[in-house]
Structures are given as structure tokens and as C-alpha cells.
Amino acid sequence: MSGRGGGRGRGGGRGGFRGRGGAFGAASMPPMGLTFADIQAMSREGDALYPPLDPLPVLADYSAHEKRICDLQTGFATRLRKSAYYVVETLKSNDLERYSDKYRQSPASQPTLKRKDLHAPFFPTEIFEGYFNPKKRRKVEKKSTKRLNLDDLEEDAEDQEKSGDERSDAGSQPVDSDYDVDEEYDNDYAENYFDNGEGDDMDGLGDGGGGDDGGGGDYD
Amino acid sequence: MADADTSRLCVQIVRSHFGPLAANAASALLTRGRLSLAQLIRYTMMKPRSVRAAILVLVQHNILWHSNADEEGEMLEFNTLECLMRLRFGRFVWQAEQLFGPSDTHDPVYQGAEIVQLILDHGKLQPPDIISRLSIYNPKSSSLYSQTLYKLVSGAYLKPSTLLSHNSPRDKRIKYEAEEKAKLTGFPTAKELREAMETAEARLKREEQEAESVGLKRKPKDHRSTKRKAIEEDMVDDVVYFRVNFDRFNTYIRNKLIETAAGERFNRSAALVMRATLKSTEAKQKNPTSTAAVAMLISDDENLSGLVTSTKKSSSASLVKDYLGLMSAIDNPTPAGRASSFINLSNNKVYVEFGIIGSRLQRHVLEAVARERHGDDGVRIVRLLLDIGKMDEKQIAKVAMMPNNVVRPLLAALSSDFLISTQEVPRSADRNPTRTFYLWHVDLHKAYSTLLGHLYKTIYNIGMRRQAEQEEPIVKAVLEKRERTDVAQDESLLSRMERDVLKEWETKQEKLTVLEMRVEEAVFILRDLDTVGSNEDS
After folding, report:
1. How far apart are CA B380 and CA A90, in angstroms?
2. What is the dihedral sign for C-alpha B50, B52, B57, B61?
3. B233 touches chain A (CB under 8 A)
4. Which segments carry the region annotation Disordered (chain B) (predicted)?
């Protein structure tokens, strides 16, 4: 019984396959009810990027209320431009000094964020402190864990991960602190590596190759 | 993270308000999602000091969430909704002007509007700060400002800014779920996990509500008045930082939309009655109001004409009753009538049907877009599918009374705009396309989100146009000249031609901003109409 059911399934599968092959062969209708005539009738050119709008839309008149709302909205942008919340960087410019420079607004004349205006608990502490105390923060940032003690690795896996994260955090800060750490590791290798070519004998390259072969041959 | 249109618009808003450096930071956060400070510095390639300044500014204005996870350190996430609300600030201040009018008509100073404007300028402020900044020029007005401040806080127009509101809701939810799951012992079953998630969600909501009820505190009781009945009075807590409660102002925008809709559907007097109904339910919008209350709110000099009545002189109250009956579609008790009603009138109680009106307004936007892009035939198909549900293409052609060769390309065009979509019903087991039914239907959710994306793109384009006009060489030169300190104090230093250029630029700017406000209203209908209704629990 199972064999017969299996046979029928197989036959059904074959039939379905045949149906699909037959359908493809017999130029079947494209999906969603389109006909080939429709597809041929469709234009082959791309649509224009800005097709002409007819009629061109015109802004309807606006009331005094709307004008007031607009003035208030633009007022926000203008006030913010002059406030401490507009972030600027001072760049050194090499242009000639001009007379009107003293009248023009420069990035230096932009008010800056003051610590007393901001409520510290609302801000992420590291970023807050990093902005307002740039010098003090560096001393606190240096972590002491430099060498991993393999014996303690299993027990303190989490601690090491945390300090590793913080070290990578420190890495994003001015490169000075990291530089010192790295140099300690690399020193041994650095001194031994460089071969300044004094001992090389340029004529003996072929022999060197032969020597190498000989060296390879030694394994036999 | 947000989709391309939203993030582009947010970056543009941040650039115009907070400068290009902050915009760089915002764009990195929007494209890459949640970042830590180190990653942000690396992706923006800016100086660390500028990045920190930008972060502080954005946190102060509530656009950035931050959290301190154990493994990751301090992570930052962008709050797109808050950023998009910045487009409505002008509207909020205008609304405050209308609500809290000037105390002295000879010297109109809109205290409420000034307070709201100041808080929007700074993101959040403490009451003593607010009052001192506003009464710099006029020390005597500080008491007026305190009174208006109290009115604003007690009317929930300002809400306190709490520590919790600076953490992203997703972070909080993850944290609470982790805590709940930690309480489960052994292997948790699916049901326990679900319960843990629900408890976490409930805790999140509860904490939000509790935190926002802070703000007013009891006035210290006057010892002399112990003989009189002790009236409990509140006053504004001076330590709390207040920010503007956007939802409260959004209700006014929504009410105005409903009033205009009633006016367009019926007539001007119906709009007046609608306005009075909405005003009478302002305190608690879920509660019903009575017809008498509505009648009271209509002032005597407003002419409620426009109804045919049997008697020549009918009182205002009966006219109001008639209008309310009209708007509640009493004459059409079918589902279609109910779907077109504005209010629900039963016994003497009037409920405004916010849900029905909201979905109807959203449908109007959808149909308007379909009409613009695909003509009246397109609207006919969309309406048909909205009413009936899912239909085959041949059936559509038959019911809509349009020939087949017109229907087919229209359906293809509508579906490429994501207004309608197909549902496949296979006839055979192998889903052969030639042997499946394709039923067309309107997927509202998909259609609305596509439309919202288009609207964001439109607003972005308007902003770009404004920027382009500003950066045209002549206009740019004049604007820079105007920024000079000597010219800023004395406008007559500008030549006649420069003043003309300036005036022309200002007209253009105004027109573009008006256009932006109008498009923003459509954004409100599609995005905020449901949530305003659901937050109306208080």
C-alpha cells in the first residue's frame, strides 16, 4: 500500500514536471493577466526624470495665521544659529586680513556650552566629563592591566573583557598613552629583525640557490 | 536606525538647527544605529571635542538617547520622532499664543508663548531659569510669568524631564526583560518568557507615567490658616527640568483637523458645533459630554444657520441638537453611515468618534494621492478595493465598469506605488503563476508607510530648495553682509538693491515654509493621528 502511494506520488511529481515543461514550451500567458500584446505595446523608453506636470501646481494663498507660524518656525533656526547649541570648529584661514573682518561673525564669536547651563545627571558621564575637563580625565583613564595573567584568565574572564574594552576605549583617545604600551612589547623583536644587508654577497645568489637546494636535499 | 527618507530628513533638520558638525554625527548614528563614542568618532572622522559637543547638544535637546550598558559602555541612539517634531515648533508656539492670551490688550505680551518658545530653544529648563531669563528687561513681570508657568504645568503643556526619559525605550525593555528572566529558575517555558516580557513592558509604562507626574509639589502649609479649611495648593517644583509636552499640543492640531473636516462635509455652522463639542471634552476627552454643555459653549452671536427647521425661530439649543444629530448620522443607522459619522449620540451623551474620524482622514490622504497620480479611475479602483476587500482583476473590471485593458495597466501602476498589493491564491500545489489567482487588495499599513516616506522626501526637497535659494551667490553675499555686526544694528547700511534682494529672499523663504507646514500636516494625519487618540487616557 505504501509502495502504491509512493508510486502515485512519484507519478504526480512527474506529471507536474511535465506540466511545467509543457507550459513553458507552449508559450504560456505571462502572470497577472497581462497578454503579450500588452507587453509589446508598453513603451521601451525609460520614463523622464522630471515628467512635465500639467497643470503646474501653484501655492494657494496663505492666511496671516500661517504667516505667523512660519515666522516663528524660521525664528527658531535663526536663534539657534547664534546660540551655544550650534556647534562650530575654528579653522585657521590663510586669507589676507581684511577690514570687514572685525565686523564679520567668526567662529570665535559663537557662544559655547557652559557647564552650569547643563544638568549633569541627564548626560552620559564620560562624555560630559570628557568635554568639560579634558586635562583631568586623561590621568584617570589609564588602566593598569597591561599583561594578561594566564592562570587567572579563567576566573577573571569577565574582568579582563571589561578592562580590554576600556583599553580599546582608551585607544581612541589621543594616541600617546597607547604608544608607550605597544613599544614595550615590540622592542625585543624590533632589534633583532632588521637585516641591513651587510652580510649579503650579491654574487653568490646562484650558490645561495644551489645551497638552498642542497639544504632541501639534506632532508633525504 | 531609520529608513533612507526619514534619516535624510532628520539629518537636514539637525544641520539647519545645530550646524554641519552635529549633522555629521547625526548621519552616522542614523545610518549605523546604536554607537558608542569611540565608534562615532571613528565613523565621522571629526575631532573628538567636536563630537562630544555635538552629543551634548543633541542630548540636551532630547534628540539622543544614551544608556550605560555593562559590557558596552555608553551607547548613543538617535530619537527620530523627537527630531521630526522640530518641524512643528512654530505651530506649538502659535498655539500657546492662542491659548494663553495676553494679559494686557494694550501691550500684548504673550507670556505663555514666550515660555514655550524659551523651553523649545533650550530643550529643557528649570523654572527659576525660565523666569529670570524672561524678566531680564522687566523685573516686575516675573510674577506674571510664574503664574503662567503654573498654568502651563498644571495643564500638562509642560512635562518634567526625567533621567529615565534619556534612555532609549528599547534599552530599558531589554534591561527589564533580562531582570525578569533572571528571576526565572530552571528552564523557562514559552509561557513564562511571555509573562516576563509582559511584566517588563508594564513596568516600563508604569515608570514612565510615574516619572511624568512629578512636577508639582504641595505648597508649604501656612500655619496661620489652620483654623480655616486647609486647601491643598500646588506650586511648581523649582528643581525639576521641564520640557514641552508635544502630545498635548498635538491634540489641538487634531481638533482643528476634525473641525475643518466637519466644516467641509457639512457647513460652517456644523464646524462651529464641532468646535464647541471638542472644547467641552477638552478636560477628559474619553468622557462624554451632554448636548446642553455643547450648547453652552457656543456664543450667542454666532449664527447657527444652515439647517431647515419647521419653525421660524428655533432656539440655539435645539439647533445644536439638530446639528449633533446630523453629525452622528442618526438618519443612516447602517455600517456605512456609522463609518461616516463624526460623533456618537446616545441618550443625551455625545462622544466624539476619534478613531473613525482618524481612519477616515487617513483614507482621504490615500485617495488624494491616488487621484493625483492615477486619475479618477485609479481612485475608483482604490475605493472599490477598500470597500470590498480582495478581488480578482476580472471582477474589478466588471464591478468598476471599466474595460479590461484600462484596468490592467492601472492595477500595475497602483501596485508599483505600493497603494495596492496582491494576494496569491494558488490553484495547483506547485504555485505555477499561470495557475494561481491573484487577488488585489489595499494593504493599508504598507500604503501609509510608503506615503509617509514620500512625504518625508517632499519635505526634504523643500528644505533643499530653500538651501539652494539661500546659497545663490547674490543672496548669499547679501545675507552674509547682513550678519555683520555693524549692519545688524543699522539696516540702512545696505544699499537699495541689497534690500530688494533680501525682501525677495524672505518672500521665497516664507512661501517654502508655508508649503512645508502644509505637507507636515499631511504627515501628522498619517503618523500621529492614532497615537494622539491613544494617549488620551489622562
Report:
1. 60
2. positive
3. no
4. 204-225
